[in-house]
Specification:
Distance between the termini: 23 Å
Mean pLDDT: 92
Number of domains: 2
Structural class: mainly alpha
């Protein structure tokens, strides 16, 4: 469990610099350059991510059950995860109405994803992993809303439709194949 916690502290800590120390972040970028900042950020994020994956995998071998999972939680989680994938796509497709309206769809997608997984899972490792991401996403969204809204490309219905289709396709690929292949759990049919 300690590897999971260390990974969460490192990964979410790096991603929280703008939340807790935006002025310090700005000074570091000015002093060291954007390329160096992004390189260190990416390296620390990658190390944190690897620790999270390995730590969560180890914790799943000896789960500490906290509650009995709600049967409907898996179904609701699937729907919420689909929404999260559309929100994730909205962060990257320029000129879509979802991003224009919500301003920070990726962070909202992380919130929805984390909540979905808290509903569907029931162990201490699940609570730590998805609870930490949910708390981080709430704090990050609040912080982002205080900053100036990001520039948004002119909105078109075609780009909004493309956003929804991209999110649906990515969700389907992940739900029906990648989740089982990479994580070992098939949301629609037993273990991987």
């Amino acid at each position: 469990m300690s590897m999971l916690i260390l990974g969460l502290v490192l990964f979410l800590g790096v991603h929280s610099v703008r939340i807790v120390a935006d002025d310090w972040r700005t000074r570091q970028i000015a002093q060291r350059g954007e390329g160096v900042w992004k390189g260190v950020y990416a390296l620390l994020s990658l190390i944190g991510f690897v620790l999270i994956v390995q730590g969560y995998g180890q914790a799943r071998l000896a789960p500490v059950v906290l509650w009995t999972p709600w049967v409907g939680g898996r179904h609701l989680a699937s729907l919420l995860t689909l929404i999260a994938f559309v929100l994730l796509a909205a962060a990257y497709v320029p000129g879509n109405a979802i991003k224009a309206k919500l301003k920070h769809p990726m962070v909202l997608g992380v919130k929805v994803w984390a909540l979905a997984h808290l509903l569907a899972n029931h162990t201490l490792a699940d609570a730590l992993l998805f609870g930490a991401f949910l708390v981080w996403a709430v704090l990050d969204f609040r912080s982002a809303r205080r900053r100036a809204a990001p520039a948004v490309a002119p909105v078109s219905a075609a780009r909004t439709g493309l956003t929804v289709v991209a999110g649906l396709v990515a969700w389907a690929a992940f739900a029906f194949w990648a989740h089982g292949a990479w994580i070992g759990v098939r949301p629609f049919g037993g273990a991987g």
